[in-house]
Every structure is written in structure tokens, then in C-alpha cells.
Amino acid sequence: MTRIFSFHGGIHPPENKRQSLGAPIKRAPLPARLILPLQQHLGKAATPMVEVGERVLKGQKIAEPTGHISAAIHAPSSGRVTYIGLQPVPHASGLESPCIVIETDGIDEWYQKNPIGDFRKVDKLKLIQHIRESGIAGLGGAGFPTDIKLNLSKDHIVNTLIINAAECEPYITADDALMRERPDEVITGIEIIARLLEPSKVLIGIEDNKPNAIKALRDVIRERQLPFELVVVPTRYPSGGEKQLIQLLTSIEVPSGSIPADVGIVCQNVGTAAAIYRAVVLGEPLISRIVTLTGFALGHRQNYEALIGTPFSVLLEAAEVDRTKMFRLVMGGPMMGISIEDDRIPVIKTTNCIIAATEEEMPPAPPAQPCIRCGMCEQVCPASLLPQQLYWFAKGREFEKARHHNLF
Ligand code: SF4
User: Fold this and answer.
1) From the alpha carbon of 374, which atom of ligand 1 is closest?
2) Are 79 and 103 in contact (CB under 8 A)?
3) What is the CATH number of domain 115-282?
4) Residue 313 predicted with pLDDT over 80
5) Dist. CA 245 → ligand 1 center (Å)
6) How far is the CA of 387 from the centre of ligand 1 (A)?
7) In the predicted model, what is the mean pLDDT of residues 99-128?
8) What is d(CA 59, CA 283) in angstroms, rounded to the nearest whole number?
9) Which among 40, 150, 157, 230 is least surrounded, fewest beta carbons within 10 Å?
């Protein structure tokens, strides 16, 4: 049994997860327009392969990766391409970005599904290329193209594969719902990743506030007699941060400026594992994901399986939003999420949660107070920074000192 270690700092914010777990995952409505940003992942934006006026089918590749670190994009439903150009996208800058817009025809006609057969026997490079062709990028939040993390150079020997099932951010329950309802998909996805990386051990890190998901995964692991270890960690934000989870499960601290693979570890999110399963076993590219719709301005708070490209407004209406009560709209959770002004923006591969909050739920921040150097920020900072010191350096324009105190 794996020992659990600790990381510096962390907090216990109100969880607010229960309200979106009362009903099973629901299929979101097919929108009239799907808006597909070409940049939904880290790396270079994808390059369009279709033209305005062209009919496309569900699952058809409509943009290809540009260079090594990039991801393909597929049509989430059948219809006609009506526009290629700038549209509002989910980004903190609020700027517009190039998108492909598809007017759906309601037929939802598939292009062709392309399952790869028995993943245990298929050549590894073919498997990785298939995952790249399926447009899979990390669903946990960063959106790093998954094929890159599965195709490491010979300098990187993977000792430990860590599957991030912690979902520590308040309000968000998309991974929890996925694990409760589709544990087979998650575990098969992990088997595929393990086949590619051949780690010495596979650890699945999950917070102890998800008893149903823990049971569901444990049952499948036991049934299939797999050598995967489910490690239940105490609920503490941000235990699902990649570096924090690695420290919790292995005691290894990934040095600043390094990646986990430099210390023999690869991390993948449970949602990404399920997307790999769908691509390899069912032959479906990444065209939908689970999104938590929550906040007290909604009549129905639950998880929806939404097509990538679905405007937020469509999901808010499906969840019976009361716009007179909605004070703030947040994409992501209350800790790492961003406030959204324009609800025409679409769900992308990294959209895990939309919060339509009332004023009581997320009131405006109180006015800033002067720092009294109490040191509490240092005690909770999970990156072991000195926030108050960085603040004073920044205020005094002593940027070199801030840099030396690990600002980056
Ligand atoms: S910035 Fe840090 S040290 Fe200053 S008052 Fe806030 S918590 Fe205390």
C-alpha cells in the first residue's frame, strides 16, 4: 500500500459539490451553431481543412495539428461550415480568436468511426498516432496535447504513472460523475496509457470526498485484477495540482522549471483517460466532454455531456438559468476559474465547469486592505512562495528581486 505524503500549505474552502451530484450526467441539447476555436490546447493553433459552405459529418477532422505540439479538431455534429474567422472564445483576455462555425442540420450523421482493435496488440507508434489524430488534449485544465506526453524521448524513463482523479477545486464534479458512472471507460483508458508508457507502478490519486467514485473504480480494478493502486488522499485544496499530487503520492518535488517526466513521472487526468478509451476502443475523436453546470442561479444543477463548441448560453438555458438572479458567470471553479461577460463563448476541450452564481453566493470582493505582514499567505501557499514579499518587491518595482524570490 502506497504511503501518503504531504505538500506545503493548502486550504479547505467550502466544497459546494453536492448540489451538482443529485442527478446523473445528462446529454446537453444539440445547438443550432457550434463554434470551434482553432486554439483549444497548449501549443500552436490547428490549421483549418474545410471551407465555408462545405458539409461536414460528425467526427470528421476539420482542422489538423500545426507542427509537433498541437491538436486536431473534429466536427462534433453534422452540418455546414458557415464561417471561419474571429469569434469570442473562453479566455481571460476576452479577446476574439479564429474559429470554425458549423450550422448543425439536426441529423447528427457520423463520418466514420475508426476503432483501432485490440490495443494490447497494436504497434505503440500507431496507437500514439491514433490518439493524436483523435485530437486528444488534457481534459484536466491545461490542454496539453496528450500524444506528446505518451511519446517521451529515450531520456525519459517512466517509473510512475499518476492518474489525477483528485478534482480538488470547489463546485466542480465532472470527473466525479464520470468515475461514478463510467468507471470501465476510465480504467480501460488507464490500461491503454499504461501499455504505452510501461511504468513500474500506476497510482490513481483521489480525494476522500468521493466515496462513490472510489468504490466504482475499486470494483473495476478488483474485477479485472489490475495492478493499479487507488490512493485516497485527504481533501485539501490544491491536492489536484499536478506538482502537489505528485508530492502527495511520491514525496518527490518536481523542481521549478522541470516537468514531471524529468523525475520519472507522467500525470494524466481521468477525463483524458476516458477520452483515450473512446478514441481507441470506440473510434470516436474528442467531440464532447462532461461539464458541471452549477450555481444557485440555475434551476437544474448537474453534469451535462456537451458537444465541444456548444455556446454557454445553450447550456445555461438547458439548466434553466434565472438571469435576474445571475450575478456572476464563472468558467472553471471559484479558485482557478475566470469571470465571463459574454455567454456566447463555446465549450472547449478544457471546459470542466460553468458557475452561474447569485450575489449571495459570490459577492464582490471587499476593498483591499494594507498588508500587515501576518504571514498567513506564506503558510497556505502550496508553491512555498512568499506572496507578501513578492507584493512589496512588485510595488517597489524591484523586479529582479521578485524574480530571485521565484516569481515565475
Ligand atoms: S498579504 Fe500575506 S502577510 Fe500580508 S496581510 Fe495578507 S496574508 Fe498577511
Assistant:
1) 8
2) yes
3) 3.40.50.11540
4) yes
5) 26
6) 8
7) 95
8) 9
9) 157
The shares of helix, strand and coil residues in the chain, as percent rounded to the nearest 5, are: 25, 25, 50
The pTM for the full model equals 0.95
At a CB cut-off of 8 Å and minimum separation 6, what does 325 contact? 296, 297, 358
The letter for the amino acid at 314 is V
Burial class, 387, CB count within 10 angstroms (exposed 0-12 / middle 13-18 / buried 19+): middle
Ligand 1 atom nearest the C-alpha of 388 is 1
Rounding to the nearest 10 degrees, give the CA dihedral for residues 157, 162, 168, 171.
110
pLDDT (tens digit per residue) in 371-404: 898 999 999 999 999 999 999 999 999 999 999 9
**Radius of gyration, CA atoms only, the chain:** 21
Q: Which of 374, 384, 389 to mutate to test the pocket of ligand 1 (most atoms within 8 A of CB)?
A: 374
pLDDT digits over 125-178, tens only?
999 999 999 999 999 878 999 999 998 877 778 999 999 999 999 999 999 999
Residues enclosing ligand 1, CB less than 6 A? 371-377, 387-388
Beta-strand relationship, 160-164 and 265-269: parallel
Q: CA-to-CA distance for 254 and 263, rounded, in angstroms?
A: 7
Span from the CA of 384 to the centroid of ligand 1 (angstroms): 14
The domains of the chain are located at 115-282, 371-408
Is residue 64 classed as helix, strand or coil in its secondary structure?
strand
